[in-house]
Every structure is written in structure tokens, then in C-alpha cells.
Write a structure and sequence with these properties.
Shape: elongated
CATH class of one domain: Mainly Beta
Distance between the termini: 14 Å
Structural class: mainly beta
Strand content: over 45%
Order of helices and strands: EEEEEEEEEE
Largest sheet: 6 strands, antiparallel
Amino acid sequence: MKRIRKGDEVIVVTGKDKGRRGTVMRLDGDRVVVENVNVVKKHEKPNPTKSRAGGIVEKEMPLHISNVMLFNPISQKGDRVGVKVLEDGRRVRVFRSSKEVVDV
């Protein structure tokens, strides 16, 4: 079970964007793309077949999944995530600090 999923609100714990929060837009293996975090300027060539103009484009680059933590709205901090098996056999994610269920 993935501890971080698309749509989760995460906080960056290391790097140049340390402390910034954002929503996970995409997962690529062990890397995550977070909205408005790790934004870089890329020089792109024009591509008329894809109707793309050339120039300098700002885009979000992926971060390693170990550099983000799931944001806990109760404590207003990043929190580690564990997996718990309920009585009916379902597996759910829980915050390690408070044992609260992340999603139902």
C-alpha cells in the first residue's frame, strides 16, 4: 500500500523548498510531483506539431518521496504514515503520532 497518494497534501522536509506545502499531482515510481513546489525554468525548443511555442517555461519537477511527509491537519505538521488492518480486513493509512485514520 502506498503511503502517499495522488491528491494528498504533503509538506517538504528537505531541500530548497523545505517547509512548503502542496498537493501531490502525480506519482512516478519513487518520485512525486507536488503542485507549486520545486519549480524550475526550462528552455524549450518550439515544436509546431504539438503547437508549442519555444522559450523559457516554468514547470514542477519531481521530488523523491522520502523528502515529503503527509500533512496532518490536526497537529498542523508533517507526519509519518503507517498501515493498519481493520476488523473487516481493510487496510487503511494512519498517522503514526496520533493513530488517526488518514482516509476512510
